[in-house]
Design a protein that fits this description.
The chain has 250 residues and is mainly α. The protein is built from 12 helices and 3 strands, in the order αααβββααααααααα. The protein has 2 domains: 162 residues, Intergrase catalytic core (hpI Integrase, Chain A); 57 residues, no CATH class. Helix content is 64%, strand content 6%. A 3-stranded antiparallel sheet has the order 1-2-3. A hairpin with a 6-residue loop joins strand 2 and strand 3. 20% of the residues are buried.
């Protein structure tokens, strides 16, 4: 899931309390990477304080019996506090049955306009890809997820690379017009001989045609005031040439 989709789910309001509870459980898994079975059995003994005073979630995955160690971030910590004293026994969160959980997730996805298939595994998948894209090392992600092999975690890394590649491909398409402008500015200098050849203008007539064309183009761009100034200047030069001619006769 994207960050925008996660935020949409977090900010959504639901009429039924059971839907809100499922939303909270899902968000908790997004920020911890815990699977459905692990979060369902999460107990107070799994929340431990490290030497530096920070809270961690520590335990063994029920599926593989592999240790997992996850720093407890503020968002999942807030969710734990929200349900403090509202669960049975030592359980931390009021997790419903798998069928009820997935059914509620579909309702959440529909209400939030998310087209992805909402499931319990999507939260764990999101945690893996989200942490990797935010710069967490693959070794650390693998340890938090409780994977037996780092190659399992590398699957998420490949998915992240593929997603990045697709996004950059789309980005390249959006800046194609800018690339065309760049290519224009970087082209080789235009040679007048090549232009004349492409226009099929002979060398003997080139000067005349170019002069007439350029004069017409320049004249069209000049204002009326510039026209008058130009004419006056040319008349002044013409009179000077006449005086010079008369002077040379003597």
């Amino acid at each position: 899931m994207t960050q925008t989709e996660i935020e949409t789910i977090m900010e959504a309001q639901f009429e039924e309390q059971k839907i809100e509870i499922v939303r909270d459980i899902f968000v908790f898994c997004v920020f911890t990477g815990l699977s459905y079975s692990d979060v369902k059995n999460l107990a107070t003994e799994n929340i431990q304080t490290s030497i530096d005073g920070k809270l961690w979630i520590r335990g063994k995955r029920r599926k593989t019996n592999v240790d997992y160690n996850i720093p407890l971030l503020n968002i999942p910590k807030t969710i734990i506090e929200r349900y403090s004293g509202k669960t049975s026994g030592d359980l931390i969160l009021p997790v419903c049955s798998m069928s009820g959980y997935n059914k509620s997730l579909k309702i959440i996805g529909k209400q939030c306009g998310i087209i992805k298939r909402m499931s319990s595994h999507l939260a764990r998948h999101t945690f893996a890809t989200f942490t990797l894209t935010k710069g967490v090392s693959i070794e650390s992600v693998s340890k938090m997820l409780g994977h037996t092999k780092i190659s399992t975690t590398q699957i998420y890394a490949k998915i992240t690379d593929s997603k990045l590649g697709n996004e950059m491909k789309a980005f390249a398409g959006n800046v194609r017009k800018m690339e065309e402008k760049m290519q224009f500015s970087a082209t080789e200098e235009v040679r007048i001989d090549d232009v004349l050849q492409s226009l099929k203008i002979s060398a003997s007539k080139a000067s005349e045609k170019i002069w007439l064309t350029l004069t017409e183009k320049v004249w069209q761009k000049m204002t009326d005031a510039e026209h008058q100034s130009f004419v006056s200047e040319m008349k002044g030069k013409e009179n000077s040439l006449k005086r010079l001619a008369i002077f040379t006769l003597f």
